[in-house]
Amino acid sequence: MPSVAPLVNDFRNRVAGDGFNELPITSHHALRAGSLPGPHRDPFDRMLIAQAISDDLVLVSNETVFDRYGVRRLW
Questions:
Q1: DSSP letter at 58?
Q2: Number of independent structural domains in the chain
Q3: What pLDDT, in 10s, does the model give residues 7-29?
Q4: Which of 5, 9, 32, 41 could form a disulfide with 50 if both were Cys (CB 3.0 to 4.6 A apart)?
């Protein structure tokens, strides 16, 4: 079984090297996620929705429920 240690030890550099940025979770995001309307209760999805709305981001997901919140979704 191959070791994942090299990936774990250099994860941030690999993410940045692929052109991605880390997205911190702020109190603004948390408050927005908590105040979202609707029946979708998954806390992780709600945080993604809140971040996409707050930071004008496109979500890459096949979750059609995200469309109910007016976020831009790719896939």
A1: E
A2: 1
A3: 999 999 999 999 999 999 999 99
A4: 32
* pTM given for the model: 0.82
Q: What is the pLDDT of residues 31-66, one digit of tens each?
A: 999 999 988 899 999 999 999 999 999 999 999 999
Cβ neighbours for 57, distance < 8 A, ≥ 6 positions apart: 23, 51, 71, 72
**Residue 31 placed within a domain:** yes
Q: What is the CA radius of gyration of the chain?
A: 15
Distances (CA, A) of 3 to 9, 20, 21, 29, 67: 11, 24, 25, 35, 39
- Please give the residue range of the domain that contains residue 56: 24-74
